[in-house]
Amino acid sequence: MDEKKKRELEIEATELRIAILDELLTFGGGHLGGSMSIADTFAVLYSGVLHVDPANPKDPKRDRVVLSKGHAGPAWYAALARRGFFDEAWLDTLNQAHTNLPSHPDRTKTPGVDATTGSLGQGTSVAAGIATALQLQHNDAYVYLICGDGELNEGQCWEAFQYIAHKELSHLIVLIDENKKQLDGFTRDIMNPQDIAEKMRAFGFSTERVDGQDVEAIYEAIERAKSDVAKPSAIVLDTTKGAGIPYFEEMLFNHSVNFDEKNKAEALKGRAALQEKLDALRGAHV
Ligand SMILES: Cc1ncc(C[n+]2csc(CCOP(=O)(O)OP(=O)(O)O)c2C)c(N)n1
Question: How far is the CA of 150 from the centre of ligand 1 (A)?
Fold first, then answer.
């Protein structure tokens, strides 16, 4: 990847983090940890990978995204708004009465959302179904399935993965956000998922593990996944829950953060630092 493209993706990831923070600041809190850890992946998907048309969100040829860890809706909404699926002003309505941006994604409400999710595990089966239908229709679109590492506690995921491999759904790419935490602590303490990449390989996926906070590494892993025409692919993203704001990265329970006085001040401090990073990225000459 050339430096210019890399810089653009880093700018986008930083923009997304600021937009996520703004959504949560307006509402007074929310799912900060898992939205921040997956921000770089959304930046790469919506700025460099996906074939989607915001003017025609139901285009049959579109690539599909299933956010199975649906609580990271704020990250997806920021990416969709910035790509032009809806007005960025919608972001101020996150999770409020009559909003089109509920806490967890709803395909009947939000342009660009292809699957309603939030009950962990279920998105894996939905993605498997979509990919099967596309394969039967000889439609070359890709399905990007985003899962959490805590979500893998759900047996449904493994049933779906086994099916996906058995059906050789090579246009399905699973992106697993391995941020090492789930709702109430470290995944290793709650139900250790062990070596996720090894498990995906054993299930028949072409698998790699990359730095999930490195836009170039994510982009290149997706490109390699697309070049494997025989098997479905899994990309295990080595990430940090709360990535981008050191205060929230270090907070043990950073899954859903209530912006009390202290947390709000830290969020604003983090936002200012991200804005500085953005200005530096924009000012740098390549
Ligand atoms: C079936 C089901 N059980 C429990 C929950 C409650 N819950 C919401 S998020 C979460 C933890 C998810 O952890 P992980 O998948 O690692 O998400 P991330 O850390 O990336 O945010 C849990 C247990 C749920 N949404 N669905």
Answer: 6
pLDDT score of 228: 85
Domain 3-283 classified CATH 3.40.50.970?
A: yes
Q: Ligand 1: distance of its center to the CA of 199 in Å?
A: 20
Choosing from 32, 36, 149, 151 the residue with most ligand 1 atoms within 8 A of its CB, the one to mutate for a pocket test is 151
What residues contact 161, with CB distance under 8 A and at least 6 apart?
A: 124, 174, 200, 203, 205
Say yes or no: CB of residue 185 within 6 Å of ligand 1.
no
CA of 129 to the centre of ligand 1 (A): 22
Question: Using CA atoms, how far apart are residues 1 and 4, in angstroms rounded to an integer?
Answer: 8
pLDDT grade for 285, boundaries at 50, 70 and 90: low
Number of neighbouring beta carbons within 10 Å of residue 285: 5
pLDDT band at residue 284 under the 50/70/90 scheme: confident
Each domain of the chain, given as residue ranges in start order, spans 3-283
Going by pLDDT thresholds of 50, 70 and 90, the confidence category of residue 286 is: low
